[in-house]
Amino acid sequence: MGEVTIIEEDHHQVIIRSVFHFYGNAADEEISKTIADDIASQWNEPAATILLRKKWYAIRFIIEGYYRPELTSEEVFTNTDPVNNYFRIENFAAGNISFVDGIGSNTGYFLRENILHHSTTGAHEYGHTLGLEHPGDLDYRGRGVPGLMYPRGTLVDPEFQYDPSVPAGQKGGTLNPFKRKVLISDIEDLKIDKLGFADNRAPLGEFTSVWHDAH
Q: Where does residue 100 rank: exposed (0-12), middle (13-18), buried (19+ CB within 10 A)?
């Protein structure tokens, strides 16, 4: 989840700001900052622009990440600020996968191994918090670099597989999540121009407000 702000002065920018509060046994200050930096760099990489009110605006993502060992369930339940997101980080997750609590949400659970080494998992799950779903067609062969919202298991060209030498669909022959990228189409799918702005601000996503215990 995040808050979208239209800035008229200076260079005409649309700012999407989100703050991540990380808790859990596998959370720490370093990984909290790294996840936030990875999300920001990956979503800002396309240098997207948008036409609003007959003017072009540059889209910029500002992502902050904080380690919050003192975080309480009450803070999660009562939060009303759309910039705030709450994610537990653990070394074990049921199903062996990271997840969010809904399409358009502000809470979820990260499996630590999924988000190491500048993985795209954090950015992918962030896309879900902003309202993006997995594409319906998971055969992306012949179309080049897969967009960020394609999930593990997607069929892709060999160079985007875990193992380029393996036939598509076999073990190692599906999308390596390190090879997907945020595309202009991912940002267009946010439909920022359809939001209802008040005083040049609008929430993007929904409040799920779920506190997670360790699995």
A: buried
Cβ–Cβ < 8 Å for 147, 186 = yes
Phi/psi region, residue 36 (left: phi>0; alpha: psi -120 to 50; beta: rest), is alpha
According to DSSP H, which parts of the chain are helical?
A: 29-44, 73-78, 121-129, 184-188
Q: DSSP per residue over 147-200, as a string?
A: BTTPPTT-B--GGGBSSTTSPTTSTT-SB-GGG-B--HHHHHTT-GGGS--BTT
Q: Any idea what DSSP says for residue 139? A: B
List the Cα angle 186/37/111 in 5-degree steps.
80
Residue 154 has pLDDT above 80, yes or no: yes
| pLDDT (tens digit per residue) in 50-66 | 999 889 999 999 999 99
Summary mean pLDDT of the chain: 96
Does the pLDDT value for residue 10 go beyond 80? no
Sign of CA dihedral 204, 97, 36, 86: positive
pTM of the model: 0.94
